[in-house]
Amino acid sequence: MTKYLFIALLLTSITASAFQSPAKIYVWRNEQGVLVFSDTPRPGAEEVKTKPGNIIESATSVDTEVLDINPQQLEEIYQVVINNPQNNATIRDNTGSIYISGGIKPQFKQGFKVQLYLDGKPYKKPQIHSMFSLRNIDRGEHKIKMDLLNEKGKVIASSESVTFYMHRASVN
Questions:
Q1: Max CA distance (Å), the chain
Q2: Cα 21 from Cα 52, distance rounded (Å)
Q3: pTM for the full predicted model
Q4: C-alpha to C-alpha distance for 166 and 145, rounded to whole angstroms
């Protein structure tokens, strides 16, 4: 008995799926020029011809106009830090030389540049890395800061200002 019931149910399901008509798919461009696909026709839409067997029936109808199909671009937030010298460091060098190193997170991208500021003024031109070698710096207190510039030269991140003291031997 159960064997016959099983066979009857199997035959019913096979014949029901064979006689279903495939859903139609329509395509058009919205006001922004983006292609929109839907199973609901509208004026100006064209029917998309599909091969048999490539159609999945849905139990519900979904309005695809409300979907955001444009890829989201995540804006990366950059951080710039000055690693060396540390804040309030004393540099003892009679030539007035100092080496400055910075760090950038996330990873430095091609096209970005770093501008170093010494005592509020740009130090030379922006460069493609965060290592600077300064020469003949006068004795006394100095402040440095770094700005990260994108490909268009816009500042996208700045470091905190770091104070250092240059000690050089004086000749009387």
A1: 118
A2: 10
A3: 0.56
A4: 16
